[in-house]
Amino acid sequence: MKEIYHLMSNYPHTQSLSTETSAINSEPDETLSTETSLTNSGPDETLELTSTIVNAALDRKGDNIVVIKVSEVSYLADYFVIITGYSHVQVRAISQAIAEKVEQERQVYPLGVEGQSESSWILMDYADVIVHILKPEERDFYNLEAFWGHAERIDTSSLID
Description:
Blueprint: H1 2-9, H2 13-24, H3 43-59, E1 63-69, E2 79-84, H4 88-106, E3 112-114, E4 121-125, E5 129-134, H5 136-142, H6 144-147, E6 152-154
Parallel strand pairs: 2-5
Antiparallel strand pairs: 1-2, 1-6, 3-4, 4-5
Helix pairs in contact: 3-4
């Protein structure tokens, strides 16, 4: 699990950001606007993707689903979706259901998936949406909601089909 936590702190998008920042801004001291996106999908498409992810997780009885809008506080993604699965099998099943439903309904594939071998914390990177599927012990220990507590939480009931 340390690998995933390390992955989040050294996210791949950060490697090219300094080059993009200097190319976008005339002065090196300026920071990227929160409206700047590293991908081409619009806000509606990203929210629809988030909705598809939430519904796929619910299909596999994912629990305590939290959607955090991180676009205002970070350039890593627009949304984080945090889901609890109560066993290794359930965590894997939620991950597979998300991958299948997103591919089927949105024709989108994850840029990367981490943690499948241990299945205590699976991270799925859809660029604008990062999915964390964790067992309760890992979720309590890493406490991602508190780490991103300054970001806006989205009411998941508005995303359910």
